[in-house]
Amino acid sequence: MASRPKVFVIVLNWDGMVDTLACLSSLRKCNYDNKEVVVVDNGSSDHSAEIIQARFPEVHIIHNMTNEGFCKGNNIGIRYALDNKAEYVWLLNNDTEVESSTLSKLVENAEESTEIGLVSPVLCYFEDKTKVQFSGSYIDLKTFEIHYPECKESPDAIFQTGPNVILWGTALLIKRTVIENIGLLDERFFAYWEDTDYSIRSIKGGFRNVVCKDARIYHKRPITPEGEVPKKSSFYYYFYERNRILLQRKHAKSRVERARILAMGLANGSAHVPLCPKEYVEIALTGVWHGIKGISGTFKTKPEMPWILRTLLIKISKIHPVFIVNILTFDLNAAYRAFLRFYSGQRKHDNFSL
Asked: Which domains does the chain possess?
């Protein structure tokens, strides 16, 4: 690469000192010299910001008084980067470690074309670096279904360099021109699904999202049996359900689409009940209700879904309402895929009881 554009690496920290220190250690070995590292501390209570500053004096620390969430926390770092003439911003989760050449490869990929707006490396599991966690996905902008590559499909054509590629925010390289064109992360999401929203906005802005196949990062995410989701906090289940609906409402083009999304929101929420830990079912359904009502921002427990509706969704969760909604809206292909997914999921989670 003849010239090396200025890159600001933004690492968000919230009581995650051990992971953040390991992430910064790996960044220190990075062979891309024209970079600045910014740690945005989201109101940590473990004094991690002070320890990080002492061990990594070259890192810029931005102190937030409270936990501003993934979106606003990163936006604060992005604004700082733009004010300091960043040509690229690299959002990097603190629970990752990178190879020395990762950033160089990402920038080199991004510089291949002015059409490329967002670039992600291949994400591998930290616990087993030979296993791929994410190598791109593809969204159908009519149904909002997200597809992930399987062995029989061609990831080169569809999931890495093709149209409508959706990238995770785990290690997302963003061109300055993209930010100037489509803006910052949507803070209404707070956390989760904001990267899908940003990928869609990038596509609508005329950019291509790509995965750099030669670049790797290692993400500290538990490896679970195929088809299972690792147990997470109540916040995750709330934001996952709520923001999924908010995302679809935001990008729906007509009243008919929005009406179908509300029906699908209830159906999906019911279908996800067997996959959710029993103690988090009600908070997940609260997230569904808030998405339907358009409630955004931070985690909230009120208003609750009406008791009758909540009970109904739990009761019908065993017959897969998504399949029924697709039949009623004459989307037979989606109904078939929904049935197969649900049947497979039920077999894996048939020990779950309500």
From this structure: 7-219 (3.90.550.60), 234-348 (no CATH)
